[in-house]
């Protein structure tokens, strides 16, 4: 039995310890927002957060997630999901959309840790997330916008 | 003359003994070459000292050469991709047997554990993953920190040895901690169990590093 928390909900699951977290969240918990791209930590489509870090769930055995907190695209906290969602819609980022939940989960860590990221910060944070449709320039624009929205949201909620 | 403070009977007895001893030992005490002998002795002594010095300096030279030779062997391991890939000259780790820059623009980050969504442990697990092209792993996968990057790449043997003797380069209190690092650090140990192996076994590598230090941590000529 492995105990873990996913999007704030606790689970105790009977799973093989080497099952990748991606299988657990998609197949066992039905959270299909996270995508399977390569299965070998090369594309970033499967990015989720584990204790606040953007792990690649396709290669992370569930044994490593025991006792930890996983957040998927469905459970991203509003202070991050709201500005990202608005910016992604405003810039109209996705083409096919397959890579986008991974892109957004990676971008969420960036704007959490670096509220005003430079282009260089964006390159450093996002170069591991591949987009077959080459939406990179729109992703960059959207991250700049999301970081502005995030700080203005934070200012508004402080008033 | 110093006064002898003995009773008169004892004085006679002692004087007699001294005279008798003088007669018996006189040939040894005053030989023909009484002056020559100490001079010879002095020459012999000087000679012995010179020879000891020469011997010492030969031993010293031999020891220094052995120390350098031990470092030369260890250097081949330090510069092997399994070791050097985590001691790059830039801020990106290297990967593979050709030591190419890590894909995905991975960066060292201040603590050597990556940046933002690109932390080492996001992909590298607590153990190697089975299968082709999957990331290797141990619990402590990381690079040296940005403050103390401990660069090996591009260093000559002399430059690297100088680095190891400098605690600002290694961050170790003394050079013996270097032995501890190469002997017990989990990442170092991992390098000898994964992919193309370094040219020495881990045991021989540690022995050569120890020998380099024990024999004076001599700096290689180049
Ligand atoms: S599916 Fe996990 S990195 Fe590609
Ligand atoms: S939008 Fe199609 S792969 Fe990124």
TrEMBL record, chain A:
SUPFAM superfamilies: 2Fe-2S ferredoxin-like, CO dehydrogenase ISP C-domain like. GO terms for molecular function: 2 iron, 2 sulfur cluster binding; metal ion binding; oxidoreductase activity. InterPro entries: 2Fe-2S-bd, 2Fe-2S-bd_dom_sf, 2Fe-2S_ferredoxin-like_sf, 2Fe-2S_ferredoxin-type, 2Fe2S_fd_BS, Beta-grasp_dom_sf, Diverse_Oxidoreductases. It comes from the Bacteria. Residues 1-76 form the 2Fe-2S ferredoxin-type domain. Pfam families: Fer2 (PF00111), Fer2_2 (PF01799). Keywords: 2Fe-2S, Iron, Iron-sulfur, Metal-binding, Oxidoreductase. PANTHER family: BLR6218 PROTEIN, OXIDOREDUCTASE WITH IRON-SULFUR SUBUNIT. This is (2Fe-2S)-binding protein. It comes from Flavihumibacter solisilvae.
């Amino acid at each position: 039995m492995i105990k873990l928390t996913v999007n704030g909900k606790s689970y105790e699951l009977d799973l093989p310890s080497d099952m990748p977290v991606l299988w657990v969240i998609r197949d066992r918990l039905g959270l299909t927002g996270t995508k399977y791209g390569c299965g070998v930590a090369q594309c970033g489509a499967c990015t989720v957060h584990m204790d606040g870090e953007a792990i690649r769930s396709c290669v992370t055995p569930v044994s490593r997630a025991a006792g930890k907190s996983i957040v998927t695209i469905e459970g991203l906290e509003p202070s991050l999901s709201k500005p990202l969602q608005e910016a992604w819609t405003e810039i109209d980022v996705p083409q096919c959309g397959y890579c986008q939940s991974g892109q957004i989960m990676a971008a969420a860590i960036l704007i959490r840790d670096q509220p005003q990221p430079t282009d260089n910060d964006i390159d450093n944070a996002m170069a591991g997330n591949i987009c077959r449709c080459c939406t990179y320039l729109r992703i960059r624009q959207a991250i700049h916008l999301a970081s502005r929205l995030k700080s203005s949201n934070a200012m508004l909620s402080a008033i | 003359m110093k006064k002898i403070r003995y009773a008169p009977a004892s004085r006679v007895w002692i004087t007699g003994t001294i005279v008798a001893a003088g007669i018996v030992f006189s040939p040894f005490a005053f030989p023909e070459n009484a002056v020559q002998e100490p001079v010879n002795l002095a020459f012999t002594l000087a000679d012995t000292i010179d020879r000891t010095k020469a011997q010492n300096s030969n031993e010293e030279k031999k020891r220094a050469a052995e120390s350098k030779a031990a470092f030369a062997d260890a250097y081949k391991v330090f510069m092997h991709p399994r070791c050097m890939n985590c001691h790059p000259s830039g801020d990106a780790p290297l990967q593979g047997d050709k030591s190419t820059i890590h894909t995905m623009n991975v960066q060292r980050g201040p603590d050597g554990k990556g940046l933002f969504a690109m932390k080492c442990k996001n992909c590298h697990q607590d153990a190697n993953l089975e299968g082709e092209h999957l990331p290797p792993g141990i619990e402590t996968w990381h690079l040296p920190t940005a403050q103390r990057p401990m660069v090996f790449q591009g260093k000559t043997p002399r430059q690297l040895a100088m680095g190891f003797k400098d605690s600002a380069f290694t961050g170790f209190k003394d050079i013996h901690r270097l032995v501890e690092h190469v002997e017990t650090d989990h990442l170092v140990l991992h390098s000898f169990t994964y992919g193309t192996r370094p040219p020495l076994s881990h045991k021989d590598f540690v022995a050569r590093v120890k020998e380099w230090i024990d024999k004076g941590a001599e700096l290689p000529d180049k």
